Amino acid sequence: MMDRDLMVQSIADVPQWDVCIIGGGATGLGTALQSAAGGLKTILLEQNDFAKGTSSRSTKLIHGGVRYLQQGNIKLVKEALIERGLLLQNAPHLVHNLRFVIPSYHWWERPFYWIGLKLYDRLAGKLGLGDSSMLSKAQTLEYLPTLSSKGLRGGVLYHDGQFDDARLAISIAQTAATHGATLLNHFPVTSLIKTEGRLTGVTATDALSGLPVQISSKVVINATGVFTDAILRMNRPKHRSIIRPSQGVHLVVDQKFLPRESAILVPRTDDGRVLFAVPWHNRVILGTTDTSVETVSLEPKPMDQEIDLILRNLGKYLLHVPQRSDVKSVFAGLRPLVKGTAKKTAALSRGHVIIKSKSGLFTVTGGKWTTYRKMAEDVVKRISKKGRLNRELADTRSLALHGHDLPVLPFHIEGMTDAELTLRIRQAVESEMCMTVEDFLSRRTRQLLLDARIAIEKAPRVAELMAEMLGKDQSWIDLQIRSFQEVAKHHIPDFKLNS
Ligand SMILES: Cc1cc2nc3c(=O)[nH]c(=O)nc-3n(C[C@H](O)[C@H](O)[C@H](O)COP(=O)(O)OP(=O)(O)OC[C@H]3O[C@@H](n4cnc5c(N)ncnc54)[C@H](O)[C@@H]3O)c2cc1C
């Protein structure tokens, strides 16, 4: 189903595609599924791995966004809450209901947040995940036994969704493939092809074989997240940028810092930030930051001050204060925010936009993971009208995603026997288009994010097993280990070789 060689082959077999999508993150993959489910001949090209960009580096929440409610953006919150409910139904293997507690320290906080969260529950309607409620101090500490009780008055409990971003991306890719889409990772688009000023296709290169190809398509969609401007510049060199990237960093620490299955939301730190501490696969994710950055990259680097800021601020709420040496992994992602008038990136809208360029290029960007399906629906609706493809829009609201009826695959590889590791790698190579050691350790499993040191330790064995399955030689193994170490070292604060 996800056989890369067969997918490469189909490029030669199809003289003209209906839809060619550039970018294999949440937005591009969702668009490929929406398009293929409606019967359109669809191809998606991703320059690195599926979800290599922002889509594997989120806080892993499927949520309406309590913060956007605070900002008064009711329409965005309602749209996201509906999508949250649909995702829980369509991907129960990767999305689940999680309890969040907002600790309160002033008399007004409990009623204030409780009223806001009651509205949140109301906006979700029938797709709600459970009622919000006020908690006494004792109840709050029962849910969060490691919360510092100094000055604590109580809390407010509410529900939201938690998911695994990179695994959901693969599940969407597999679903799109079963609907006939061709999806290729490690396949960068290098230029756009135009005939008399109209966009008629793209030039791309198979990064694994070095082979360049030309792809002819009736419609081309730019779904490249923070790289949106680069594609818009391929279309028109003088294009003015529309993306204002904002970096968010997360730290992963041991579950001893938050041992129960409830998350903490700090709605406003002393310096006005929203922070989360969320249990995730026997670890805890702490984050995040919102730092405006000038340059975009596939491997954004966490800044020292971002790491310290998270530790310092969350440390104020926890009984045991996490230190830099407690960090098992740190990861940074770039939000593809669409420029607006706000000075601070935190105040920019999380809504999505669709733009049609004169050449016929469609761009879809902004938004959130939670709303990927709605973004896809909107852009495919738009191309069906303006791109004159004349197809009925598929109803993806109740489309179950691949794996919903299968056992959940492991996220860690630590503690696996060699036979278990071999089996997991085989599944990843044969059905999940896993092509590199990093694809496996970072996105097919989440070992790099769960514990980067263990991931580095396991990389040589993973490389050997993958080489056997993919028919690669020792030089491939050596190169894979080196390039994985290069990526992984940025996931360990104060990295030193053999640390
Ligand atoms: C710190 C942080 C936390 C977040 N937390 C949440 C959360 O908890 N919940 C939530 O709903 N949302 C969250 N988000 C938002 C969400 O992650 C993003 O909105 C979403 O992942 C963006 O997906 P995308 O597909 O548009 O971009 P990306 O995932 O970046 O995908 C774009 C892809 O395009 C590819 N590409 C670029 N150029 C080319 C080319 N020339 N050829 C081929 N491919 C190309 C890139 O390699 C990349 O994979 C968070 C974002 C950040 C940064």
Characterize the structure shown.
The protein is an alpha+beta fold. The chain has 3 domains: 4-54 and 167-242 and 348-386, FAD/NAD(P)-binding domain; 91-162 and 244-338, D-Amino Acid Oxidase, Chain A, domain 2; 418-491, no CATH class. The chain has 15 helices and 18 strands. It has helices spanning 4-13, 26-37, 66-70, 74-90, 109-124, 137-143, 165-178, 228-235, 304-315, 372-386, 418-431, 437-444, 447-450, 452-470, 474-488, and strands at residues 17-22, 42-45, 61-62, 95-104, 133-136, 154-163, 182-184, 189-195, 198-205, 212-222, 243-254, 262-266, 275-280, 283-287, 291-292, 329-338, 352-356, 362-366. Strands 3, 4, 5, 6, 11, 12, 13, 14, 15 and 16 form a 10-stranded mixed β-sheet that branches. A hairpin with a 5-residue loop joins strand 17 (352-356) and strand 18 (362-366). The longest helix has 19 residues, at 452-470. The protein is globular. It binds flavin-adenine dinucleotide (FAD).
In short:
The chain folds into three domains: 4-54 and 167-242 and 348-386, FAD/NAD(P)-binding domain (3-Layer(bba) Sandwich), CATH 3.50.50; 91-162 and 244-338, D-Amino Acid Oxidase, subunit A, domain 2 (D-Amino Acid Oxidase, Chain A, domain 2, 2-Layer Sandwich); 418-491, no CATH class. Helices cover 35% and strands 23% of the residues.
